[in-house]
Amino acid sequence: MKTLATSFIAGMAMLTGSALAQTVAITGGTVHSMGPAGTLENATVLIRDGKVEAVGRGLDIPSGYREIDASDKVVTPGIFAAFTQLGAVEVNAVGGTRDGSISGESPFHAAFDISYAINPLATTIPVSRIEGITRAAVTASGGDSIFAGQGALIHLGEGFDLVTTSRAFMTASLGEAGSGDAGGSRAGAVITLINALKDAQRYAKSPNPSDWDGVVSAMDAEALEQVVTGKQKLLIHAQRASDLLQIIRLKQDMPKLDLAIVGAAEGWMVADKLAAAKIPVIVQPFDNLPGDFSMLAATQQNAARLADAGVLVVIGDTGGDSHNARLVLQYAGNAVANGMAWDKALAAITLNPAKLYGVADDLGSLETGKTADLVVWDGDPLEVMSSPDAVFIAGQEMDLVSRQTELRDRYMDLGGDQPFAYRH
Amino acid sequence: MAHNKQAVFAATAAAALFLAGCASADGADPKRAIANGDAASGVVKAEPSKSGPYPSTYHALPSRPTLIRNAVVLDGAGKRIDDGAVLMQGGKVVAIGRNLDAPADAVVIDAKGKWVTPGIIDVHSHLGVYPSPGVRAHSDGNEITAPVTAEVWAEHSVWPQDPGFVRALAGGVTALQVLPGSANLIGGRGVTLKNVPSRTVQGMKFPDAPYGLKMACGENPKRVYGGKGRAPSTRMGNFAGYRASWIKAAAYKEKWDDYESKKASGKEAKAPSRDLEMDTLKGVLDGDILVHMHCYRADEMAQVIDMSKEFGYKVTAFHHAVEAYKIGDLLADNETCAAMWADWWGFKMEAYDGIRENIPFVHKAGACAIVHSDSDVGIQRLNQEAAKSLADAKKVGVDISKEVAWTWLSLNPARSLGIADQTGSLEPGKNADVVLWSGDPFSSYSKAEKVYVDGALVWDMTDPAHQPVMDFELGQPGEGDAK
Questions:
Q1: Second label for A388, Cα 20 to 30 Å away, from A318, B20, B181, B393?
Q2: Which residues form the signal peptide (chain A) (predicted)?
C-alpha cells in the first residue's frame, strides 16, 4: 500500500527532475493522437524527458526504453477536466475544507484567486487521476457577485506544485444565476458586467484605490483589466438562448474580450451565431430537463448540434464538480449516443479544453514535443466499462492508487480475525 | 420476503377505519374485492396498506401481442438467452426462450444486435415531489417542520406533469418509488408508481404495491433540526427520536390489537381514536409498510438493524448506503437490501468513504444489491451506473456477469418494493414491463429504443407518436424535441 511518505518522495523526485529522465515506449495500441498523426492502429508512442518524442507506426524503440505493451488497448492524450473544483474542496459540506468561493462580505470578487487554496494532497486528485484525468481547470464558483473570481490550471501529478497557471481565467454569471447577484434581474447582471469592464478600463488609466468610485471595488477593477484587454479569458455562465445572444452582443461591442460560455443548455438554438462569433462553449451533455426556466429547450443533442455548427465544444461538468470530475468520459460517451461524432467527443475532453484555455501548443494531443500526458485504456475510453491501465503525466507513470482503492482493498474480503484497521 | 407474510394477519385498524369512513369507495382494487366486510362490527379482513384511500386508478394502456426475437435477452433474474425471444400478450409475459411462435395478430420485432431486459425499477426517486422546473413553488418533498412526520404521504405532493417522468421512461424506467426527502427522522410514506403518463397520481399508482416508509439516518436530520435549536442535534438524538416514536407506535398498536381481538371474540369494545402518524408506524410494525432508510455509514446501519430488532420490525432497504461494502455480511444475514449509487461520494462526511465497487461488493457478500438514483439525471441512465460498478469490480477480480448484474436494476428493487410477484423479471405470467435496447445496455452508446409497461408501448425512440410530452412543455422552446 502506498503511504504518504512514498508519495511525498515520488513528488520530490518529480520536482527535482529525476523523473524527467524516464524513457518509455508504449507499443501496439490504437493511438488516438488528436494531432496530425490522427488515429493509428498498432502504433508506438515514445516518451522522453517528460515529452512526447514520437508517435507513429513501426518506430524503432531505442535501447534502454521501458516498453509498455498496449496491444488490444487504446492510447489517448490525458483527459482535461475543463470545469472543476479539484483541490479546492475536500468535503462539500465541511466548511473548513471548502475554498471554492468567496462570500458577499468580502471586499473583492473578481480579484479572488483560487490558486492560493488548491491543496495538492486533496484526495480528489488521485481519485480523478486514476480515471485518466491529467489536467484540470479549477474555477471559482458562486459567491454573491456576478464575478466568482479567477481560476487556475493544474496538472494532476504528484508533488506540491500542481498549479501550472494561476489567474488563467475569470468566471462570471449572467442569466438566472447572475440575476440573483445583480438586483434580481438578468438585465442587472448584464449592466453590472458591462460597467465593471468599463471600470477596469478607467481604473487602468488612473489606478488610485483611495479615489475610486466604480460599480466594483478597486481591487476588482484592477483584476478585470486583464479581462478587458483580452489577456485573460472570461468564462460566462448562462443557459437561455436570449442570454447567450447578449454575450454575443457583448463580444461585438468589446471585440478584445476573449469569451467562452459555460452551460449554454439552449446553445443549439443559436449555434450558428455562436460559431460566427467564435465563442467556445463548455457544455454538460446530460442537461435535458427544464431544471429552471432558462433551460426549457435543453437536450442531450446540444453538444452534437453545436459541434456540427462549427462551435468549439468542450464537455465538462458545468456545475464545477469537485469529486466526480472523472465523469467527463461518461458525459462524452453519452454525447456520442446523442449524435456527436466520436472523435469530436474525445476532442471535447482533450484537445478542445486545451485550445479553450490557450495551452494547446503544449497539451491536448500526442505530438512530438508536447508534454507527455497520456492514458492507456483497456478499451474505448468513452465506454462506461472502460478504465485506464496506465496514466502518464508529464512523462511520469502514476500509481493507480487512491484513498478509494485503499478502502476497497481493506474491505474486499470481510473475513479474518483481526480488526480491519490493521489492514494497510 | 418475510415482511409480506405478516400482512395476512392484518385485519388492522387502518383498513377498518378507512372502510368505515369511505365505505362507498370503488372496488376496482382486486385485493379490496376479497375484503370480507362485517357491517355490524366494522371489522374487515383486508390488507390495509394495499387498499386504503386514494386508490390506484391505473389501467394498462392498450397493447397488441408483441414478439421480440433474435435479441440478447436478460431475464432480470440472472439468466441470459442469446438469440432469444420474448412474447407479450394481454399485458403479460407469455413466453421467453428461443424460436417462439408469434400469434397471428402479433407485432413481430426482429431485434438482431439488440438487447431485451425487464424495465428498470428505481427505488429512490423524488420525481413529482421535486419536479422540473425546480422552482420553490414545486418544492414539495420535505415536510421540514418536525423531525417525525410519519403522517405525510409523498403521493399527495406528486405532480404528475413532471417532465422528469418522461426522461426516466426514455431511460427504460418502468416503475419507481417516490419518497419524501431525508430532512426528517421519519419523513413519511413513499409511493410506488408505474411510469406512465397520467392526469393524476392515482392513475400512476402501482396497484396493490405496499407503501414504503422513508426514514433517515445521520447528518441531514441532525443538521436541519439542530440548526433550529431543537432535537435532534446529534446522532444519539436521532436514535432517541426514532425510539420514542416506535414506543408510541407499539402502544398504539397494542390498543388496536386489543380492540381487534375483543371484537373478534364478540366482546364489547370501543375503537381507539385514530392518529394519522401512528397509523403509518403501526403499518410498519404490522409488516404492511416497508421501511426504506436513508443511511450512509456502516456503523449507523448496524445500529438501525439493532433498533429494528428492539421494536420488532424489519428494514427492507438502506438507501445510499455508501459504506454498505463494509458490512455486506451483516446486510446478508439480516436480509436487508442496500440501494446504492455507482460513484457518488465526498459531498459530506458520511459520503466520504465511497468506493466504486460498493454495489458489486455488497452483491459478492450475498446481500441484495440495488442500483438507485435519487436524481432526475441519474434515473435516466441507471443501466450505465450498473455498468460502471460491474467493470470496476471485474478489474479487481470480482467477475459478475451482466445477466446477474441486471438483478440490481429490476428484480432486487422489485423485491424491496414488494412487487416482485408482478414485475422485475421476464417470467411467464408477470407484467410485461420490458425494454428493447438499441444495443448492449452496459454501453454508453445504447439507448432504450422501445419501452413497454404491461405490454403497452409507452416509449418509442424512433416514433414521436409514442413519446409523451408533458403539459408544462407544450408551447415552450424545445417542445417535442429529441431530449
A1: A318
A2: 1-21
Chain B residue with CA closest to A402: the answer is B355
Q: Work out the minimum CA distance from A149 to partner chain B, whole angstroms.
A: 22
Q: In the predicted model, is pLDDT for residue B291 greater than 90?
A: yes
**CATH superfamily of the A4-76+380-409 domain:** Urease, subunit C, domain 1 (2.30.40.10)
Confidence of residue A21 (pLDDT cuts 50, 70, 90): low
Could B396 and A407 be called an inter-chain contact, meaning their C-beta atoms sit closer than 8 Å? Answer: no
pLDDT by residue (tens digit) across A348-392? Answer: 999 999 999 999 999 999 999 999 999 999 999 999 999 999 999
- How many C-beta atoms surround the C-beta of residue A57 within 10 A? 11
Q: What is the model's pLDDT at position B442?
A: 98
Say whether residue B380 is in contact with chain A using an 8 A CB cutoff. yes
Residue ranges in A17-167 assigned as alpha helix (H)? 124-129
Q: Which of A302, A384, A401, A403 to mutate to test the interface with B (most CBs of B within 10 A)?
A: A384
Question: Is A336–B343 a contact, with Cβ atoms under 8 angstroms apart?
Answer: no
- Closest by alpha carbon to A242, among A285, A294, A289? A294
Residue of chain A whose Cα is closest to the Cα of B168:
A289
CB B207 within 8 A of CB B196: no
Residue by residue, DSSP assigns B84-127 as: EEEEEETTEEEEEESSPPPPTT-EEEE-TT-EEEEPEEEEEE-T
- CB-CB neighbors (< 8 A) of A300 in chain B: 482-483
Please identify among residues 298-317 of chain A the ones whose CB lies closer than 8 Å to any CB of chain B. Answer: 298-301
Lowest mean pLDDT across A180-184, A406-410, B202-206 = A180-184
Give per-residue pLDDT as tens, B37-56: 333 333 333 344 446 899 99
What are the C-alpha distances in Å from B423 to residues A77, B5, B338, B371? 45, 19, 19, 16
- Check residue A104 and give its pLDDT: 79
Instruction: Return the CATH number of the domain spanning residue range A79-363.
Output: 3.20.20.140
pLDDT at A203 over 90: yes
Torsion angle of C-alpha atoms A55, A60, A66, A70, degrees rounded to 10: 50
Which chain B residue shows the shortest CA-CA distance from A92?
B347
**CA separation for the pair B369, B332 (Å, rounded):** 10
| In chain A, where the domains are located | 4-76+380-409, 79-363
Angle between helices A328-337 and B382-395 (to 10 degrees): 130
Residue B22 has pLDDT above 50, yes or no: no
For chain A, what is the radius of gyration of the CA atoms?
22
Given a contact cutoff of 8 angstroms between Cβ atoms, the answer to whether B116 and B466 are in contact is no
Does A263 reach chain B within 8 Å, measured CB to CB?
Answer: no
d(CA A76, CA A164): 21
d(CA B359, CA B388): 10
Task: Check whether B100 has a pLDDT greater than 60.
Answer: yes
Grid cell for residue B382: 441507471
B472 touches chain A (CB under 8 A): yes
A195 touches chain B (CB under 8 A): no
Residues of A in contact with B345 (CB under 8 A): 323-324, 404
Is A79-363 the same fold as A4-76+380-409?
no
Q: Which residues contact A120 (CB under 8 A, 6 or more apart)?
A: A11, A87, A159, A160, A161, A162
Domains delineated in chain B: 120-416 (3.20.20.140)
At B422-459, the pLDDT tens digits run: 999 999 999 999 999 999 999 999 999 999 999 999 99
- Assembly ipTM: 0.94
The β-bridge relationship of strands A374-377 and A388-393 is antiparallel
User: With contacts defined as CB-CB under 8 Å, which chain B residues touch A420?
Assistant: 326
pLDDT of residue A82: 98
Q: Give tens-digit pLDDT for A139-148.
A: 999 878 999 9
